[in-house]
Design brief:
By secondary structure, the chain is mostly helical. It has helices at about 10, 30-40, 65-75. It has one domain (about 15-75). The longest helix has 13 residues, at about 30-40. It binds zinc ion (ZN).
Length: about 80
């Protein structure tokens, strides 16, 4: 089951594509939200945490760089 991040379409346009490595299948939309969550909870910057997120094959977040998305969320952009 894939999640829908239509609301992140504009944000995902800022995120580069990524075709290699296992995190290719990690949902960049969820990674973005994880970054926001870590910032709000004052959790140290930890992009490796996105590896534990579920994958997603569709929507604007498809094949986006999840680490980059996490960073965007963490920095509040
Ligand atoms: Zn997602």
């Amino acid at each position: 089951m894939s999640c829908n991040h239509e609301d992140l379409t504009e944000i995902m346009k800022q995120v580069g594509s990524y075709q290699g490595g296992k995190q290719r299948h990690v949902c960049a939309g969820c990674a973005y939200h994880l970054g926001i969550k870590h910032r709000e909870q004052a959790t140290p910057f930890n992009p490796g945490a996105v590896d534990d997120l579920k994958g997603s094959q569709g929507g604007p977040q498809r094949h986006k760089n999840a680490y980059e998305a996490y960073k965007l969320g963490f920095e509040g952009r």
